[in-house]
Inverse folding.
């Protein structure tokens, strides 16, 4: 993030200094205005990048939470399906047939 802040400060300084010189302002006043602009640009970019990084972090966190919830839902569904299959398997198994006793002669 330091790179962005440095580049924004440099861009603000160059932009305001160039505009002041083009407009024919005093170079001393142009430098002072450019330094203030550099500070303002750096502060603006720092706050913008901080909010951008925060939003990216929050988005990643929400994505991970959603993936965890989906995995938990899939595991629960698989467990229920396995329980249903076991119940069906026990219902389909016929009861053993007991042999009738032989008649006495």
């Amino acid at each position: 993030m330091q790179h962005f802040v440095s580049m924004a400060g440099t861009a603000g300084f160059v932009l305001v200094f160039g505009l002041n010189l083009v407009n024919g302002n005093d170079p001393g006043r142009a430098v002072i205005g450019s330094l203030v602009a550099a500070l303002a640009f750096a502060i603006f970019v720092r706050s913008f990048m901080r909010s951008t990084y925060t939003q990216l972090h929050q988005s990643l966190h929400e994505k991970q939470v959603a993936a965890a919830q989906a995995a938990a839902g899939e595991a629960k569904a698989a467990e229920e399906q396995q329980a249903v299959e076991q119940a069906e398997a026990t219902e389909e198994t016929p009861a053993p047939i007991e042999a009738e006793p032989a008649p006495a002669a």
About this structure: The chain has one domain: 2-81. Residues 27-92 form the longest helix (66 residues).
